[in-house]
Design goal:
By secondary structure, the protein is mainly α. The protein is 77% helix and 0% strand. Helix 1 crosses helix 4 and helix 4 runs antiparallel to helix 5. The longest helix is centred in the last third of the chain and has 38 residues.
């Protein structure tokens, strides 16, 4: 990991890499390689982590942790879905699976919205102080 990447950033990178994978799986995003996803996620996880940004970046950090939480629940839902699927399709099971998949999609949709907001904040900041953030 890069210098000064916190455990949380690591976690976020992991989760985002998963999110990109999930989005590709459900066809929301074109397929990319694991490397590309990881690079994109790492880039994202590091946004706004420098000290100066933190004071006024509380909205940013709030969103960031909201996304992390959401991704964790998406991950859990996916695990549950997999377990239900491998338990075999019974009437109730099938209904559960469909419900969970719908929930996953909804969570992803919200995470994506929060993500866009996060990127918007980041881009605005980056424009304001070119020097403060590392260039993309």
């Amino acid at each position: 990991a890069a210098m000064g990447a916190t455990k949380e950033d690591e976690e976020l990178t992991e989760l985002l890499t998963k999110l990109y994978t999930i989005q590709e799986d459900i066809g929301a995003k074109p397929k990319t390689t694991e490397e590309e996803k990881r690079a994109k996620a790492e880039n994202a996880a590091k946004m706004g982590t420098n000290k100066k940004a933190e004071k006024k970046g509380s909205k940013f950090l709030e969103l960031k942790s909201a996304i992390v939480d959401r991704l964790k629940s998406i991950h859990q839902l996916l695990k549950d879905t997999k377990e239900l699927e491998s338990a075999g399709y019974g009437g109730d099971n099938a209904k559960e699976v469909i419900k969970k998949q719908a929930e996953v999609r909804e969570q992803i949709r919200q995470a994506t919205d929060e993500w866009r907001e996060l990127e918007a904040i980041y881009k605005k900041e980056a424009r304001k102080k070119k020097s403060k953030f590392t260039p993309e």
